[in-house]
Amino acid sequence: MKDVKAEDLPLQKYIYNSRIIDAYMAFLDETYPDIDQNKLLSFANMTNYEVEDHGHWFTQEQVDRFYEYVLQKTGDTNIAEKAGRFMASSKVKNEVVYYFISLLGLTNAYKTVSKGARSMTKAEDYTTAVLGKNRVEIVVTPRDGVQEKEYQCLNRKGMLEAVGELYNAVNLRVEHPECIFKGDSHCKYNITWSDSKSQFLKRIMHISIPVLVLGNLLVYLQNGSIPNTVISLSLSSILALFLKTLSLKEEK
Question: Does this model's pTM top 0.90?
Answer without folding.
Answer: no
